[in-house]
Specification:
Length: about 220
Amino acid sequence: MSLLVKICGLSTRETLEAALDAGADMVGFVFFPPSPRHLSLELGRELGRQVKGRALKVALTVDADDATLGNVMDALSPDILQLHGKESVARLRDIKLRFDRPVMKVVPVATSADLAVLPGYAAIADRILFDARAPKDATRPGGLGAPFDWHLLENLQLSLPYMVSGGLHAQNLAEALRVTRAGGVDVSSGVESAPGVKDPEMIKAFIRAARATQELSVR
């Protein structure tokens, strides 16, 4: 199976085009006001049109209510809903039924105890995304540029697809994949020149590095 590469937190036509041209499999759009990558519904609609089926559109929300999710669905028409908050297993089930979209649940990781939630989420979610657990005083749950201990996933037994994120960049993603054996990588701050400001050249370099890692793994 080919490695999935997701560029998250895109917010301009130029950087979205860079990700699409470079061959990103997924492009992520953030709908969470505390984030420097937050999009208005109007801009989300505009960028969503630009994708034109060239990649999967992922809508990132954090503990969003049905009204918020409905607005995001209307604006972006995402292919996947990425739930980055403290959503319960029951909430995941409700969202899948109501909005009829695949769900990617983010699991924040700091210690092995954080993996105890996996069986419940795995029964409902279509994909798991492992991210570094944010500090207690953080204003947002992700996109903070910090990695977690990838060795916590070294002997992971998980039946559904999973990705890793948190502090990834072009120079360390090969090691992250070697340790975790993840089927995909997700980057946001690792392709930015400043918080919320994506760099087209860094996006291209990350995707090149991901593809080079994939080529080495099949030799």
